[in-house]
Each structure stands twice: as structure tokens, then as C-alpha cells.
Design a protein that fits this description.
This is SF4 helicase domain-containing protein. With about 400 residues, the protein is an alpha/beta fold. It has helices at about 30-45, 55-60, 80-95, 110-120, 135-145, 160-175, 200-215, 250-255, 290-295, 330-335, 340-350; strands at about 70, 100, 150, 180, 220-225, 260-265, 280-285, 295-300, 310-315, 320, 365, 395. The strands form three sheets. Strands 3-2-4-5-1-6-7-8 form an eight-stranded mixed beta sheet, sandwiched between helices. Strand 9 (about 310-315) and strand 10 form a beta hairpin. It is built from eleven helices and twelve strands. The relative contact order is 0.14.
Length: about 400
């Protein structure tokens, strides 16, 4: 499909313009079909945004079918990882499938490994002592294979926004996906910009077509877009909280996207040695239909909700909400634990703490990814010095739940 100039003229591709249609076809009366939809909404309620499975975030953002959600944030602040986790939660709790265009994270096996790492909380790398067992790796592979598809146009295939929509449509038709991720915007082919008179008219045209597509298909389309570099920005200094106006063509993004959010690490400039460097704030600057989707606001340290601590844990590749991952639950565990491990975990949940001896249970602890009795036992030379048959316990927050 080629782009039009917004006035009915054809701009690229050399194909003739489509035949003109009767202007009256654009007039939509309140006919019986429309009334049927209205009556259904009246009786059953309008479609509302669906939970992210992070209650603290749900107050500000929920997944609304037919919405175009734009997420901004400085490079390296964790936009991709945040959206991967949100999509994993959708897959875990509702079975929703996602198509991911994320060329910066290619090849495809790296993207799938990132998803497996976040799902299990363990690194799929045998060179690490806390690596994922192969049995778990295979189970997690089956889950990711069922719920995610990577989109990557090969040589000779287009990468314009409309090309990507055609690939997403193929994923909808072939795999039944409900969520599409375009990550990031600057990796898309924007060569049509000059023909449309510059970036702003191009953005108006393209964002209009993207939002029309989400409404027509009832897909949830998420786009990541980097903010513009600011004058005087230096390495090692704090950066401001980005919003829609921070992106090139900002006002157009603000006007046309259904949701504008930001992933922001306020203390990243302190370096990895600082405990604060992993702190994250999620800011929802614009949310259409507040009653159906959420109200603008923020969570995380130094936000509207400083009581909600949000940080990224590099070892588990998970976002932790008040020191607990939303993926620490049986709904996720069933997709990567072996039957024996799952039964043992279920038994542990059913037995009252008071009935367990100290050798069975330690309050507020959970086993790390260190090999345990359910894992394949490696040879002695492969074992770390502190390895034991039951794993190495680590202390968690008192409000940790199994």
C-alpha cells in the first residue's frame, strides 16, 4: 500500500490511484447494526481496558483493544524490557499472543532468550552457575513458541510503517496475535518523509493510518520512540523525565496517540555501583478515556506514588514491584517448572509454615537458580564452591508471597 498526501493524491509506488467512491458512503447513520452494538454496550457494558496484572500500574494504564500506545524513554532506561514483561504477563494470565518487531535485539534467538530469561528469572547461559536447567529451558521454549512471534523483514522486504502493518496482519491471521510491538520507531523506513513535505506532515499521515489500523483491527499496538537529545546533555548527569513532546514531532505524537507513557531511570547517571541506579519510574502522560483505561500519573521512586517502588533486576531480567516480581506466581511457574518441581512447590504452599522444620523451610526465603535436587546434577568440576543439594537460600522481603 502506498502513502497518500492527505488530499487524495498518490505519492509513491507508481500505481494508479484507487477509484473514487461515492462521498455519501462516508455518512454513518444510526442504523440497526449500529443500534445493535449500542444496545449490547448498554446491556453488557462498554469494552474496558484489560489489566496489566500489576495493580499499581492499572490505575494509570490498562490494555485497551484498538489503542496505539507510545512509550518513550532515554536509551538504556528499559523500555523494551518493560514491554517484554507486560507482554509476558498477558501471555501468562490470559494466553494473549504477541508479534514483536525489535531489530535492535536481533537475531531472533536473542529475543526469545530474553523472554525466557524474564519468564523464568534465570539466565539461559550455561557459563553462569545460576543458569537455567535444560529441562526448564525446553518447557519455557514451548511457552514462548506458542505465544510470541518475531517480525523481521529480510532482504528485499520493506520496512515502512505500512509494510510493518502488513507483517503484523499476517501474524494476526496466521498466529492469532492480539498485541503488536514496534520497537523502536527510528528503525522503521521513513524515506517517504520528503515526498510528504517533511517530518510533521509525514507523522500526521502515518500516525493517522496506524491509529486507524488499531481501531479497525482491535489490536493493541505499542511503539517505542526515543526522545530528542537535549542541548548540553552530558554523560554522568541527570536527565529530565521525557514525555510526548520530547520525541521529534512531539506535539503530533501527543495529539494522535491514544496513550503516551515513559520509562525513566532517575538515578541511572550515578552508575551501576549505586543501589539507586536500578530504580525506575513509569509515567503516563496522556491516557485517552480515563474511565476505561486509566488516569495520567506515575509510579516509582520520586513519582506521584513513591510508596510503589519499581526497579529492574538485571539477574532475573524482571521488573520488581515493591521487591516482588509479578511473574513470581504459579501461573508463570507452570510453564517452565517440571512436574516434580511444580508438585513440590505446590506442597510447600499448602503446608502451614508452623508445621515445617527449619531444614524444610526458612521464613521469607526462596531457592535461587543454583542447581537443586530437581535439576540435572552436573559433574563435580562444574559445581560452584558454595553449591549444596538444596540450593542456596536468599532472604526476601517479609511481604514476599509464594
Amino acid at each position: 500500500m502506498a502513502l497518500t498526501d492527505g488530499m487524495g493524491g498518490f505519492t509513491a509506488g507508481g500505481a494508479p490511484p484507487p477509484p473514487k467512491v461515492d462521498p455519501a458512503s462516508a455518512l454513518l447513520r444510526l442504523d440497526e447494526a449500529t443500534w445493535g452494538r449500542m444496545e449490547h454496550d448498554y446491556t453488557h457494558g462498554r469494552v474496558k481496558g484489560e489489566t496489566t496484572h500489576i495493580p499499581e500500574l492499572d490505575q494509570h494504564f490498562k490494555w485497551m483493544p484498538g489503542y496505539c500506545n507510545v512509550w518513550t524513554g532515554w536509551p538504556g532506561d528499559g523500555k523494551t524490557e518493560f514491554l517484554y514483561q507486560l507482554l509476558l504477563l498477558r501471555a501468562t494470565f490470559t494466553g494473549r499472543k504477541s508479534a514483536i518487531f525489535s531489530p535492535e535485539n536481533m537475531p531472533a534467538e536473542h529475543i526469545y532468550d530474553q523472554l525466557i530469561h524474564a519468564l523464568t528469572g534465570q539466565q539461559p547461559d550455561r557459563s553462569l552457575s545460576s543458569h537455567l536447567s535444560f529441562a526448564r529451558y525446553q518447557l519455557a521454549r514451548d511457552f514462548v513458541r506458542e505465544h510470541f512471534i518475531v517480525v523481521y523483514p529480510g532482504k528485499g522486504q520493506g520496512r515502512t510503517p505500512l509494510d510493518l502493518l502488513s507483517y503484523f496482519e499476517a501474524a494476526v491471521a496466521k498466529f492469532g496475535v492480539s498485541h503488536c510491538l514496534l520497537d523502536p520507531w527510528n528503525k522503521v523506513d521513513h524515506s517517504a518523509m520528503a515526498a510528504l513535505g517533511g517530518y510533521e506532515p509525514y507523522l500526521v499521515n502515518v500516525l493517522g493510518q496506524l491509529t486507524d489500523w488499531t481501531v479497525d483491527t482491535k489490536q493493541s499496538l505499542s511503539i517505542t520512540a526515543h526522545p530528542r537529545r537535549l542541548d548540553g546533555m552530558k554523560f554522568g548527569t541527570a536527565r529530565p523525565i521525557p514525555d510526548g513532546t520530547s520525541i521529534a514531532g512531539g506535539q503530533t505524537w501527543e495529539n494522535m496517540a491514544h496513550v503516551i507513557g515513559a520509562v525513566y531511570r532517575p538515578y541511572r547517571h550515578l552508575g551501576s555501583r549505586s543501589e539507586l541506579s536500578s530504580e525506575v519510574g513509569i509515567y503516563l502522560h496522556k491516557v485517552k478515556s480515563h474511565k476505561l483505561v486509566g488516569f495520567p500519573g506515575s509510579i516509582g521512586l520520586d513519582s506521584d506514588r513513591p510508596d510503589v517502588r519499581l526497579r529492574y533486576d538485571w539477574k532475573s531480567a524482571r521488573y520488581l514491584v515493591n521487591d516482588r516480581s509479578p511473574l513470581d506466581c504459579r501461573e508463570a511457574e507452570q510453564f517452565y517448572l517440571t512436574d516434580a518441581e511444580l508438585r513440590a512447590r505446590d506442597d510447600m504452599r499448602r503446608v502451614p509454615t508452623s508445621a515445617l522444620t527449619p531444614t524444610d523451610y526458612q521464613p521469607n526465603t526462596i531457592r535461587t537458580a543454583t542447581p537443586n535436587s530437581f535439576d540435572d546434577i552436573p559433574s563435580a568440576e562444574q559445581l560452584p564452591a558454595d553449591w549444596s543439594l538444596n540450593g542456596r537460600p536468599i532472604t526476601l522481603s517479609p511481604n514476599t508471597h509464594f
